[in-house]
Amino acid sequence: MLEIRDLVCGYGHVTALKGLTITVGEGQLVALVGANGAGKSTTLRAISGLVPPRSGEIRFAGRDIAGAEPRRILEAGIAHCPEGRRVFPQMTVAENLAMGAYLRRDKAGVAADRERIYAEFPRLAERRDQAAGTLSGGEQQMLAIGRALMGRPKLVLFDEPSLGLAPNIVERMFSVIGAIRDAGTTVLLVEQNAFAALELCDYAYLLETGRIVLEGKGEALIADPHVRDAYLGG
Ligand code: ATP
Asked: ipTM of this predicted complex?
């Protein structure tokens, strides 16, 4: 579904990705793990059109989307759930969810999806008329996920969804992401919480300073001595 070949991109003098190659199959949950600054967020930003590639290919559902406008990429079916729960703080929960569906014209479908999200996250239902900025960190993260799903994406990009959340909420977050995959949506998950991501995923890539240095099934990476030492605390 998503194929990235030899992707190079960066910011000014910084080359954040130095020839990245990854594939995400339809229906898969693929994890991209690595240390701070390895280039994980940049990979997601390049896919969603926020950072222009210097060279390389990004193909989605057979089409070349490298360098396309973010709006076109969203229309093609890719939703980006960025790091740091970027909800619109002054807007209500309901308005934030509506923003996620702004490209859709099927009102009944939008309403049904909204109710499904409220059923999945009852806290959001209770607070639907409250400003999003007044929610807890975990609730804002759930809202950011709900908003991404409101566009009925084919592929969702998650950037560090567990960042800053309490441990019991982190667990719930990963189970929600697993459920999104189980419902048929393809997922590319960026995480510093390497163990949880590797346990959950169908396939994983390890990124170090802009290059993929290891790939395989999650359990293979969990068993790898280098991964154990550097990312899983030995
Ligand atoms: P993190 O988890 O800290 O976000 P990451 O693996 O997602 O790490 P990126 O954010 O993709 O890493 O950063 C890759 C490299 O690009 C780093 O060297 C970083 O300092 C640099 N970088 C990221 N964003 C910018 C920017 N806006 N301007 C300049 N350099 C940047």
From this structure: 0.92
